[in-house]
Amino acid sequence: MSISRVATAAVSEAVHIDRMTEHDLLEVVEIEERSGLSRWGWAAYYSELQTLNRELMLVARVARPLEQACTAAIAGYIVARLGAGELHINNVAVRDEYRQQGIGSLLLRRIVDAGKSCGATEALLEVRAGNRAAQGLYERCGLRIIGRRRNYYSQPVEDALVMGMALSRDA
Prior knowledge:
Elements: H1 9-14, E1 15-19, H2 25-35, H3 41-49, E2 57-62, E3 74-83, E4 86-94, H4 103-117, E5 122-128, H5 132-140, E6 144-153, E7 158-166
Parallel strand pairs: 4-5
Antiparallel strand pairs: 1-2, 2-3, 3-4, 5-7, 6-7
Helix pairs in contact: 2-3
């Protein structure tokens, strides 16, 4: 299944994908911390926003929160870098209450489209070897395991699986 077919129409109507701004960073860091990602923190995201890669930093804004008590505007985010013709996806995370609704797929589709527009010919990412849920999402979006980095992650120490996919402009 191609990455462009993964996101459903219902999700794309309820969620808007925008470029990340510095005003989004407190929520982004909160999502990062709750998701258990390797910590970047506010300063690293802010620094990344100052680079030419800022167009590869996206947030998923919720048009209609699931519950009235939910005040968070950002359901998830994705951050990538472009270099040597590769789109390297650094972080992707979705708030617990918005998982399993296609938001991660929508973010991945948009970042891949942005990477293609910037001339990337390949998309790559690392994922914890034990994170089966993320691996499943990435596989559904067209990425395949192409390698392993031993002891790549710390806290806890764990291997990373390298996943990738070729990007063609006409796909």
